Amino acid sequence: MWMVTGGAGYIGSHVLRALRAGGEAVMVYDDLSTGSADRVPDGVPLVVGSVLDGAGLEAAMREHAVEGVLHIAAKKQVGESVEQPLHYYRENVAGLTTLLEAMAATGADRLVFSSSAAVYGMPDVDLVTEDTPCEPINPYGETKLIGEWLIRAAARAHGIRAAALRYFNVAGAASPELADAGVFNLIPMVFERLEAGKAPLIFGDTYPTPDGTCVRDFIHVSDIASAHLAAAVRLRDAEAGTMLTLNIGRGEGSSVRETVERIIKITGAAGAVPEVVDARPGDPARVVASADRIERQLGWSARYGLDVMIESAWHGWRLRHP
Ligand SMILES: NC(=O)c1ccc[n+]([C@@H]2O[C@H](COP(=O)([O-])OP(=O)(O)OC[C@H]3O[C@@H](n4cnc5c(N)ncnc54)[C@H](O)[C@@H]3O)[C@@H](O)[C@H]2O)c1
After folding, report:
1. What does the DSSP 8-state code read for residue 52?
2. Which of 1, 122, 199, 317 would you label with 46, given CA atoms 20 to 30 Å apart?
3. Kind and range of the H or E element at 115?
């Protein structure tokens, strides 16, 4: 049985569906702080509890005979992590430590970890490989990088087999009710502006990129989910102590201007004209994954393009904002 922490959230709810479709047994452990129980399908056990509660984790893992964990639960807002670093370190680092202790105590020895491109900080390269230096520039990114270190050490010491998946810019939804409920990323931020009858904002257009706006690697959440299934299957036969570190991206960049223009077209907001405002501190010019290693090691590559991501995110937005 796989335990999916954070399975009631945006990415976790997609991951548990992909695992089930792949024939894997799953249960969810989630404190519902940002997730919602109705994202967990019938027939999947849900234990409501925090990953900071070691006794609660151990009880759930023993009750459901958990052999492996997909640790997706975390706090994920960069700005909030700057304002409340101690909260982020507690949730993301102490939470992971507690989970690793529960794994060591119960003998669960496979772990797939939600890491992030935020570990790279402001990479100054065309394509970010897993060997690009990690220099996170905010507490959120730091907690993800420290999480990878913790896992590597525990893998060596306790024979855990692990994969850290560094997601790039996640977008889209497999179905409208599973769409991201937050408004923290470019695509939902543009939806919100358009709905309010306001011009979508572009933060800076003098970056050293072809159209002067930032370039990002958007990846469909269903592709993120299928990568988790591939990693989980791969870990089954992996040697004790294995630690895979893999980017999950498309290896293709889209500029912010290009993305905003696609959104305007797809949502039918013809006539909307983006407004360029000051660049935000800490926004790197270009962050695009090299997705070669995951293709080589897991035979995985992304299937969906930007339009599908925007269309599916828009359907989800309309459901929440009728
Ligand atoms: N969404 C993105 O663009 C993105 C990009 C890179 C990495 N990530 C990572 O992916 C993971 C999932 O992100 P998401 O977008 O689905 O966020 P989300 O907020 O929708 O999901 C997080 C889930 O974890 C649960 N949770 C939070 N703290 C918990 C705790 N202490 N104990 C138990 N459950 C807890 C929440 O209730 C929620 O269901 C996070 O680790 C995040 O850092 C997300």
Report:
1. T
2. 317
3. strand 110-116
Cβ-proximal residues to 275 (8 Å cutoff; 6+ apart), any chain = 199, 200, 201, 202
CB of 172 within 6 A of ligand 1: the answer is no
Q: Is the CB of 3 under 6 A from ligand 1?
A: no
CB 185 within 8 A of CB 171: yes
Atom of ligand 1 nearest to the CA of 39: 39
The answer to pTM > 0.90 is: yes
In this model, does residue 190 exceed pLDDT 80?
Answer: yes
Q: The dihedral of CA 185, 186, 188, 192: what is its sign?
A: positive
pLDDT band of 42, cuts 50, 70, 90? very high
| pLDDT at residue 270, rounded to an integer | 87
Percent of the chain with pLDDT over 70: 100
Q: 167 CB less than 6 Å from ligand 1? A: yes
**The residue to which tokens 């706090």 are assigned:** 75
Q: Tokens 């994969």 identify what position?
A: 163
Within the chain, where are the H helices?
A: 10-21, 54-63, 78-83, 85-88, 95-106, 139-158, 186-195, 221-236, 256-266, 292-298, 306-320
> Is 140 considered catalytic here?
yes
Ligand 1 proximity of 74 Cβ (cutoff 6 Å): yes
Query: What digits encode the pLDDT tens for the residues 160-177?
Result: 999 999 999 999 999 999
